[in-house]
């Protein structure tokens, strides 16, 4: 018996374009509706994906009422994630929400409750898990090649990467700056690789030395919601220290702006284990030469540079294809709502720790 593909819709068409590629690629979905408050952006995407005018909406409530959707991607400014995801769940759709799941733990838990109540799936778009080099590290961990991991350094640092659209740098719309924007990917990669160890306490320190002076922005043409008149009131750099069960430490660092090599943008994830260390070091989104493995053989230190092949899908496309297959086959969601809730809880504690100037215990 063949079943009809699920009807997919996307709300928010910035990174929403990456979701469109995923829905177009999945054999289980048909992209049928688009929504964006910016009519110009909406029209451009509609042409690109061949969506008829009657299935294009500037009001997400109209789309949820009229388009009869099975699955909805929520790709809006962070502060809208909770309201819109809950509305989509209540309209009977499964939801794939962009990161961060929400701007507060209270909102994230309300979203989780709504999903449970409606018996629909709520998933989070942690696309950075879908890298070939990260898959190799996960495999090494599964094989025990690192022994017991006791230390993780997870950072994403840019020389000049402050998003130039207004909402990212306004707390009421974003919930936070560099840490909630890119730090959350690093946090998720670390936790996911280690099968979500329990985090016991969080310390954080946030700074804003560049955005507040209008420096080091990403000069990008932006489409909508440009409220640049409002002041920059989020972190453009933040560090965190997480004390976890089993004497594991996670060191986090996210920075949109700092003095370093021009336009440098680095993702770094280092796991120190009792039997080996893996280092993922990605400069300006390159794919090759990103890995190092260090261990000891016959009493001598050894360095290996694995040459991982990138085959098949990666990023959002892989995430969506895999998540839709899991949905149809009633398998667990690869990036479940609980992973979204944990991320929000930890970052909320990190921001609170910075405010209180002390370590914060997680419940
Ligand atoms: N996973 C990733 O790698 C990744 C990358 C970029 C952004 N994101 C996340 O995706 C989300 C969106 O970010 P972005 O970069 O696409 O932002 P963006 O500003 O480029 O796009 C947001 C879109 O939402 C539309 N919008 C705003 N309010 C709306 C409303 N009420 N109804 C309908 N449309 C509305 C805007 O017109 C705009 O086109 C954020 O949560 C961000 O953190 C994730």
Report on the structure:
It is a single chain. With 363 residues, the protein is α/β, with parallel strands linked by helices. It folds into two domains: 6-125, NAD(P)-binding Rossmann-like Domain (Rossmann fold); 131-311, Dihydrodipicolinate Reductase, domain 2. The chain is 32% helix and 26% strand. It contains ten helices and 15 strands. A nine-stranded mixed beta sheet has the order 14-13-12-11-7-10-9-8-15. The protein has a six-stranded parallel beta sheet with strand order 3-2-1-4-5-6, with helices on both faces. Helix 1 packs across helix 9. The longest helix has 20 residues, at 337-356. The relative contact order is 0.17. Nicotinamide-adenine-dinucleotide binds at residues 11-15, 35-38, 41, 60, 75-78, 80, 98-99, 125, 127, 165, 181, 223-225. One of its GO terms (molecular function) is nucleotide binding. Residues 6-126 form the Gfo/Idh/MocA-like oxidoreductase N-terminal domain.
Find the CATH superfamily of the largest domain: Dihydrodipicolinate Reductase, domain 2
Q: Regarding CATH, which class of the largest domain?
A: Alpha Beta
Q: Specify the CATH architecture of the largest domain.
A: 2-Layer Sandwich
Q: Give the strand line-up of the largest sheet.
A: 14-13-12-11-7-10-9-8-15
CA distance, first residue to last residue: 47 Å
CATH third-tier fold name of the largest domain: Dihydrodipicolinate Reductase, domain 2
Can you tell me the residue ranges where pLDDT is under 50 for at least 5 consecutive residues?
220-227
Mean pLDDT: 95
Task: Write down how many β-strands occur, each being a DSSP E stretch of 2 or more residues.
Answer: 15
Rounded to an integer, what's the Rg over CA atoms?
21 Å
Measured by DSSP, the beta-strand proportion falls in 25-35%
> What fraction, in percent, of the residue positions are helical?
25-40%
Bound molecules: nicotinamide-adenine-dinucleotide
Organism: Candidatus Thermofonsia Clade 1 bacterium
GO molecular function: nucleotide binding
Domain GFO/IDH/MocA-like oxidoreductase: 137-277
InterPro entries: Gfo/Idh/MocA-like_OxRdtase_N (IPR000683), Gfo/Idh/MocA_Oxidoreductase (IPR052515), GFO_IDH_MocA-like_dom (IPR055170), NAD(P)-bd_dom_sf (IPR036291)
């Amino acid at each position: 018996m063949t079943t009809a593909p699920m009807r997919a819709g996307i709300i928010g068409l910035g990174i929403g374009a990456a979701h469109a590629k995923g829905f177009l690629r999945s054999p289980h979905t048909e992209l049928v509706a688009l929504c964006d408050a910016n009519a110009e952006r909406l029209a451009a995407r509609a042409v690109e994906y061949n969506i008829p005018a009657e299935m294009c909406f500037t009001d997400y409530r109209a789309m949820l009422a009229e388009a009869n959707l099975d699955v909805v991607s929520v790709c809006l400014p962070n502060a809208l994630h909770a309201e819109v995801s809950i509305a989509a769940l209540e309209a009977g759709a499964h939801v794939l929400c962009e990161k961060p799941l929400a701007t507060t733990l209270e909102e994230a838990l309300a979203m989780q409750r709504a999903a449970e109540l409606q018996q629909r799936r709520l998933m989070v778009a942690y696309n950075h898990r879908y890298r070939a080099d990260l898959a190799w590290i996960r495999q090494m961990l599964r094989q025990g090649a690192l022994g017991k991991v006791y230390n993780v350094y997870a950072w994403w640092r840019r020389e000049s990467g402050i998003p130039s659209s207004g909402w990212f740098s306004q707390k009421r719309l974003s919930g936070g700056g560099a840490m909630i924007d890119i730090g959350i990917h690093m946090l998720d990669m670390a936790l996911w690789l280690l099968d979500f160890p329990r985090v016991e306490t969080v310390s954080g320190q946030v700074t804003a030395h560049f955005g507040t002076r209008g420096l080091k922005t990403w000069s990008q043409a932006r489409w909508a919601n440009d409220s640049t008149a409002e002041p920059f009131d989020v972190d453009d750099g933040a560090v965190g220290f997480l004390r976890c069960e089993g004497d594991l430490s996670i060191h986090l660092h996210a920075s949109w702006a700092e003095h370093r090599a021009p336009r440098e943008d680095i993702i770094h994830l280092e796991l120190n284990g009792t039997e080996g260390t893996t280092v993922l070091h990605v400069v300006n989104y390159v794919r090759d030469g990103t890995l190092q493995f260090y261990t000891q053989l016959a009493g001598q230190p050894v360095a290996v540079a694995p040459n991982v092949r990138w085959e098949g899908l990666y990023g959002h496309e892989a995430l969506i294809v895999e998540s839709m297959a899991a949905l149809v086959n009633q398998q667990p969601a690869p990036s479940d709502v609980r992973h979204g809730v944990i991320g929000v809880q930890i970052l909320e504690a990190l921001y609170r720790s910075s405010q209180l100037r002390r370590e914060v215990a997680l419940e």
